[in-house]
Amino acid sequence: MIYNDPALAAAPLAERIAAAQHILILTHINPDGDAVGATLGMWHALGALGKQRTAILMPPVPGYTQWLPGVDQIILYQSGMALPPVDLAILVDTAHLTRIGSIYDEHAAFLATLPVVVIDHHVTNDGSATFNLIDPDSASTCDLLYRLFCAMGVDIDRTIATCLLLGLTTDTQSFQTNATRPASLRAAAALLEAGADHAQIIRAVYYGLPASSAALMGRALAGLRCEDGVAWVTVSREMFAATGAEEEAADEVIRVLQRIGEARVMALFKERHDGTTKVSLRARAPLNVADIAQRWGGGGHAQAAGANIPMTPADAADAVVPLLKALAARDLP
After folding, report:
1. Which H/E stretch holds residue 47?
2. Which residue in 2, 65, 129, 234 is a FRET match for 260, CA 20 to 30 A apart?
């Protein structure tokens, strides 16, 4: 069952939630602000509806989210951990159970017995869950949840509003992305009117950069390459070790790449602990990097996508950069 309109999805979803005894809330690996904000927004909303619920995230969780109300109630998954006896799973900001990492790897048989609700805004979502609310026109999962909660009659208080506004703010990069719509700004205004702590969101997201993150950015950007409309850098484990930076520091690097005027496509190749590579891709409209990410089982949005590639960063760059250069050359006069 696939819905694109939260107003139409609200009643049948409310029925599923009402029938459930204990609900599990999950999101994708390497959760970003939208994933954490949506997880907490859903956790608070289900609490307001009187439901027993458990939210589990795969660490690490971005530092700028760790002040959000209710974050101390989130369980950070560790290998071998048992799942609670739930009878409904809700996935936010992700399309498939396979995108939740070790939680799925270690509990696939149990999760396969559950009805699964997916609430997502990624264009690469194929709607394969039991119940799907997918709106690629939403700028973030958090503003999709805002419209869903309104349709369900959930009281959006200051707590829920703060979680949702953080996700909306970060996923649109403060309303800079092409996905920003009039509805995104209306949702933000409504969340502010509901009491969202805008000042703390801005402090945490934009003025809380650790010195270690700045040091990692310097090392990574020293190796910047920009050719044929493509800008790319590599972040190695050695850089993390030398600077003491957290994993999320790499997100700041890709944001800098997006400001390079000569680049139509940008890529960050981050070495993972197992030697494989997480690649983050960005593009100027109308170029589409999601198609490239999907070649390695990734996904996302047309202008913001990613994938985990079973190669070293050097080999991953050799495989991906030629595709990005070909993409960047399209539609040129």
Report:
1. helix 33-48
2. 65
Pull the structure tokens for residue 156.
């959006």
Residue 200 phi/psi, 5° resolution? -70, -35
| DSSP code, position 62 | P
CA 230 – CA 25 distance, rounded (Å): 38
Q: Which residues of the chain have pLDDT under 50?
A: none
Domain range enclosing 6: 2-205
Q: Encoding tokens for residue 324?
A: 């990005």
Per the listing, tokens 């040091």 go with 215
What is the pLDDT at residue 301?
85
pLDDT on residue 125: 86
Instruction: Tell me the backbone φ, ψ of residue 135, rounded to 5 degrees.
Output: -130, 90
Taking CA atoms, 108 is separated from 111, 120, 181, 289, in Å, by 5, 21, 37, 30
Establish if 333 belongs to a structural domain: no
Helix and strand element counts for the chain (H, E):
12, 13
Place of tokens 């409904």: 88
Separation of alpha carbons 283 and 265, rounded Å:
4
Whether residues 230 and 178 share a domain: the answer is: no
pLDDT at 178: 85
8-state DSSP, 100: G
So what's the pLDDT on residue 300? 85
Asked if 184 and 69 touch (Cβ cutoff 8 Å), the reply is no
| Other Cβ atoms within 10 Å of 109 Cβ, number | 7
pLDDT at 332: 60
CB burial of 266-302 (b: ≥16 within 10 Å; e: otherwise) equals: bbbbbbeeeebbbbbbbbeeebbbbebbeebebbbbb
Distance between CA atoms of 220 and 255, rounded to whole angstroms? 12
Model pLDDT for residues 6-42, shown as the tens digit of each residue: 999 999 999 999 999 999 999 999 899 999 999 999 9
